[in-house]
Model the fold of this input.
Amino acid sequence: MAKNLREELKKTAEKAYQDSEHKKMAEEYLKKYGDKDESELMNELLSKVRKNKAQGTFSNSDLDNFADSVKGFLSPEQQKRMEALIKALKSQN
Done:
């Protein structure tokens, strides 16, 4: 599954982000997170959200901006799961 996800991310990045700044950012994310499975990614995201909330640096708009920036990398099914996750993250105390 991870290999298929990496290949899909590469293809989508090439199509969606032709300018060098976005392409470089997409490549860095792929390098950093491309070999992690969904569970590992979810745990890391939840950890970062908890940390940022505790520090008072969590922002719903930052979360929305992040979601918008990665949406092009995700399948419609993954986008729906991400939307549900973001809704849950926003409602956590």
In short: The chain has a mean pLDDT of 77. The chain has one domain: 2-91. Helices lie at 2-16, 20-33, 38-55, 60-70, 76-91. Residues 76 and 82 are 10 Å apart (CA to CA).
